[in-house]
Amino acid sequence: MTDGEEYTLADEIVARARIHAREVVDEYELAVDLGALEWDVSPRARRRAGACRWHADREVATIVLARKAYEAYEWPAFAEIVRHELVHAWEFQRFGESGHGSRFRERAAALEAPRHCDAFAEPRYVLRCLTHSCDWQAERHRASKPVKSPDQYRCGACNGALEVEHAVSGRTWTTASGYGGAKAALGDEW
Ligand SMILES: [Zn+2]
Ligand SMILES: [Zn+2]
Fold first, then answer.
1. What's the chain's Rg over C-alpha atoms?
2. 116 and 94 in one domain?
3. Predicted pLDDT at 187
4. CB 168 within 8 Å of CB 189
5. Cα-to-centroid distance, 154 and ligand 2 (Å)
6. Are 100 and 9 within one domain?
7. What is the CATH number of the domain that holds 16?
8. Which of 53, 121, 153, 163 has its CA 20 to 30 A from that of 21?
């Protein structure tokens, strides 16, 4: 641990995930043995929001959660990731193996958890500097203030104006009204 703040955030992530895991066991009757489950936080993982490892020798599952995902997502979306990894832990504890097959799919659906755990790779929005000579850009997973009102913010590198792209549709905007227009035009595709 080099940074006190990082330690605190990792503690917070594990504490919230543990509480949620207990709720899942109670409410959805997923028979995960919480006593044979360990938690860890990855400070660097970018592609995967979560992972579950199985230590067959000790019969213990370890769920690893990405700090960057916790920072990028609202809690309900992060909680879905926790539930996804809990299904892996349950499969490991019960069957000694885990994947994304039909058994996993059924359980994940019952828990309202996503079937895939690699969604973290795709940002929903890309913020980009409009200055021709500047290649600054940043990815966002939720509609942060700069995403909603890019005209209220400046490029962190050159102080230039910003544009936002909706990654799935390719639509772009530079103002708050442009954001509203793109959202209205896309409707269900948003
Ligand atoms: Zn998975
Ligand atoms: Zn710039």
1. 20
2. yes
3. 81
4. yes
5. 8
6. yes
7. 3.30.2010.10
8. 121
Q: Does pLDDT of 135 surpass 90?
A: no
Which of 152-180 are b and which e, b meaning 16 or more Cβ less than 10 Å from the residue's Cβ? Answer: eeebeeeebebbbbbeeeebebeeeebbe
Distance 105 CA to ligand 1 centre (A): 10
Domain match, 129 and 93 both = no
165 in Cβ contact with 126 (< 8 Å): yes
What is residue 3's predicted lDDT score, i.e. its pLDDT? 55
Residues with CB under 5 A from ligand 2 (ion): 129, 131, 134, 136, 155, 157-158, 160
Q: How many domains does the chain have?
A: 2
97 with 129, same domain: the answer is no
Work out the number of other CB atoms within 10 angstroms of the CB of residue 101: 10
CA-wise closest residue to 20 among 7, 6, 34, 41: 34
For 66-107, write each residue's pLDDT tens digit.
988 898 888 998 999 999 999 999 999 999 998 888 999 999
Q: Please, what is the average pLDDT of the chain?
A: 88
